[in-house]
Amino acid sequence: MEREQMTIRLPADLKEKIQREADKRGFSFNGLVIEFLRCGLEQSQEQK
Predict the structure, then answer these.
(1) In the chain, what are the domain boundaries?
(2) 37-48 burial string, b = 16+ CB within 10 Å, else e?
(3) Rounded distance, CA 31 to CA 27, Å?
(4) Model-level pTM?
(5) Residues with pLDDT less than 70, the chain
(6) CB-side exposure of 9: number of CA atoms within 13 Å?
């Protein structure tokens, strides 16, 4: 899978919540963000 790098700005509390959830699931921070984005896009497409 080809990947591109980008920078996003997150509120500090949101970043901490994502990191805690990633740690709990055994994911990297980046891996969990990708999973959340995929799930969100799938749900959005299902609602159309």
Answers:
(1) 14-46
(2) eeeeeeeeeeee
(3) 6
(4) 0.84
(5) none
(6) 0
